[in-house]
Amino acid sequence: MKETVEFLTKMPKFELHVHIEGAVKPNIYFKIAQKNNIDVGLKNIEEWQKFFQFKNFAHFIDVYIKAVSVLKKPEDYTELIEGFFAYQASQNILYSEAFLSASFLVESFSNSEILDAIEKGLKQGREKYKIEVALIPDIARNIPQSKEAVLELVREGKERGLFIGIGLGGLENGHPARLFEDIYKKASEYGLRKVAHAGEAVGAESIAEALDYLQAERIGHGIRCLDDSKLVERLKTTKTPLEVCPSSNYRLKLVEDNQVHPLRKMHDLGILCTVNSDDPVMFSTSLTDEYLLLFNQGFSLEELWQLNLNAIEASFLSTKQKGNLVMEFEKWKKNFLLNYKKES
Known about the structure:
- By secondary structure, this protein is an alpha/beta fold.
- It has a single domain, classed as TIM Barrel, CATH 3.20.20.
- β4, α9 and β5 form a beta-alpha-beta unit.
- It is globular, with a radius of gyration of 19 Å.
């Protein structure tokens, strides 16, 4: 057990489904609030950190809204992005494809000023932490009136080398993927990669819509695929990756606490799955914790290692980059096991 914990903690990781706003430590938000003279209703940093500890879904929404409400200036996002780099580096996450809530950005800032701030945050984060983060701004389904503005922001950001794709997040129920077909068609023309949250709170039909109407290349969450055996076969045949977030599903009561996570069955059926943390700081988890959770549910170390390699395969890096990274990861694994045996 000790070896497994050390292995999962130290292993180099990839992550494909993580929201920057939900993966920044509380002290960063508190510092920004103080700088912007915003009263968060809590006396000190200790109370603020305690406030971030997950209690239930309503509390999560409260934390999210209060945290994001302190972001008033473009430079706040520079600090937020650098803070995200710090958090990912602390988890040995060498590469992330991370979401930014763009529907809120386009309501608050001009494209040029927010893109300048994002560019600065990426530059500072890369220089300081020596890891890579690729950004995928997403449209909130429940703010459909923002979709054209988000697409334009993403197009401009791609031209500046800041963004690699476009995503679809927000409230799934009542906001079907087909309403965003036009935006995703244009995104394809701009050379953007396409992902979408689907099959989280709504059934398998939501995943099918994201594939049919959006031609989504990856699906965020996707756990409801198990509701439809034909969809399962389709996902296996097309090798469409699913970005699975176990703790998030438990926290939001999409999976009951006493149930083994659906990832067990999804993996056994041969669906290409990856492990992710979603909003780790706000859900009181981490990517390392996700792997440990699955280990405690019976996943073997080899299976967890394969899930990590799946994230490399499912990423939007080039085939050559992926091949080189797999070799590097396998070399790390071999060295870890050799050194551990020597020390034991």
